[in-house]
Amino acid sequence: MERGSGFSFMKYAMVASLAMVLLAYWFRPPRVSRLDNRLHMVLSSLLRAEGKVGINNARPRVAIGLGGCVDIIVDGVTLLNKIGLPPTDQPLHHDYIENADQLAQSFAYFFAPGAAAERFVSNDTLFSQLVEASRELPGNRWSVGGNAPVMAGRLAVEGCDVLLGGSFSPEFADVLSQHITVTGNVVEEPDIHLILEYPSGASWGQYTARRANRYIVHSDDHNPYLASLQDFAVKLQDFNPDLLVVGGLQMMDSFPFQQGEREALLSQLGHLLSSSSPRTGVHFEMASFVDEGLMQDLMRLVVPHADSLGMNEQELPNLLSLLRGTNVTVLSDPNPRVATVLDQMRELYRLVNQHFRQTNPDGHADATGRPLTRLHVHTLAFQAMIVTHGSQWKNTMSAVAKASLTANRHVCGSPDIDPSKARLIMDESFSISRQEGSQRIPLEETRPVSCWDEDNYEICVAPVLVCTEVYQTAGGGDNISAAGLVLQI
Ligand SMILES: *[C@@H]1O[C@H](CO)[C@@H](O)[C@H](O)[C@H]1NC(C)=O
Ligand SMILES: *[C@@H]1O[C@H](CO)[C@@H](O)[C@H](O)[C@H]1NC(C)=O
Ligand SMILES: CC(=O)N[C@H]1CO[C@H](CO)[C@@H](O)[C@@H]1O
Predict the structure, then answer these.
(1) What pairs with residue 453 in β-bridges?
(2) For residue 457, how far is its CA from the centre of ligand 2 (angstroms)?
(3) Which long-range contacts (CB under 8 A, 24 or more apart) does 296-301 make?
(4) Measured from the CA of 411, which atom of ligand 3 is nearest?
(5) What is the pLDDT of residues 106-121, one digit of tens each?
(6) What integer best gives the mean pLDDT of the chain?
(7) Domain ranges of the chain
(8) Which atom of ligand 1 is nearest to the CA of 100?
(9) CATH code for 48-486?
(10) Which residues form a coiled coil (predicted)?
(11) Are 281 and 244 in contact (CB under 8 A)?
């Protein structure tokens, strides 16, 4: 009995300690919920940063061009299957699309890495087939598209009065916000853009998409000619905007213009920008370009008149390669590190401003063009911005927070951010440059937007709560860029 009770005491002790271990295990904060906590904290801190400043009491006035279209949004793989286009075994880049084989090759080229791309289809028969098939596809969606109208929509929602330059059909103009005034000729047959969306992990033949994104095809008749430019220029004089935004020029990419036609159009646009009041900020939104001639024209005629540039992680190396005088980059890492992007941004900022100083050696007030004072780069994992000290751009920290939140809101398709549909993919700390010995900045949950000074500018970086249940990627950059701008004018 004695022995027995000693034995049972030991047994109880063991059971009790085992129970303690189990209890400790039970109450240990599980890894998942710790991550959840971090996400909640980052979200509430970003919301606080976004809410810190409102827009000015008066409604800011923003003029934005050029162009617009009707978007048909479909699941990319479903559409290709429907038209019976088999997956190619040869992913290949094409400047523009002439036939179905090239479409398959070009789609495969961007689909696997999950890189955004937009291409002109020179074959009308093929484009009509694609549009017809899309019309019949269950789950397709139609919406107002094009960089300018999407940015206009976001700016109107955020409290701006907007003048929009674009050629639209009458029904189209009706669905726009009452705070948007459209200027441009009315067209009966609007340009159609076909948006082939795909979620992360989607597969097409042997290809699997590394991240959610879209591949866009168009065959525009109006947009490449900047058809609304004249009307826009006239209305602009009285509108007297605080901010003038230009986007949508990728519709000119690889388009079969007559000799000299493109240059003449861009010269007119450059003239419009250069004649705007010095108190009007000018923002140029980059896009997916491959046509080197067009890019050269843009660098010469448009970009020098902008104070501000907006672009994504593909467009940044694309533009930089042109400025460096190397071959134009059409595909880059769709998930670049912060350090890489910041180095590219510093270089772009330096090169553009160097060009400005070279063309204006005396720094007179009657300078041709403007120095670049704002550069916003949006990537899947984070937002980054450079703003020159003493420039007109305000509230950089809040603007970057707003841009970051807008990324989730847009892609998830909801103004309220649901943390269970979000994920932080930025590392717990980032290096501010790829140069050896560079400072590392921790991502602090309670202060997720990191800002610091360098040279003559401030840099701010904010993590994105990446949406995991993708509703739509197309138009994301436009919503994000516009959301960033609205707090800065
Ligand atoms: C244009 O597309 C159609 C339909 O896919 C095809 O039959 C035709 O060969 C293409 N034309 C050219 C010039 O490639
Ligand atoms: C750059 O472009 C030229 C002309 O298109 C081509 O011959 C050359 O191979 C390209 N270089 C690289 C590194 O891609
Ligand atoms: C999240 C969000 O607001 N997305 C918007 C992007 O812009 C278009 C056009 O203005 C809106 O329709 C989307 O709702």
Answers:
(1) 458
(2) 35
(3) 296/322, 297/262, 297/263, 297/266, 298/249, 298/266, 299/323, 301/263, 301/266, 301/267, 301/269, 301/270
(4) 1
(5) 999 999 999 999 999 9
(6) 91
(7) 48-486
(8) 5
(9) 3.40.1190.20
(10) none
(11) yes
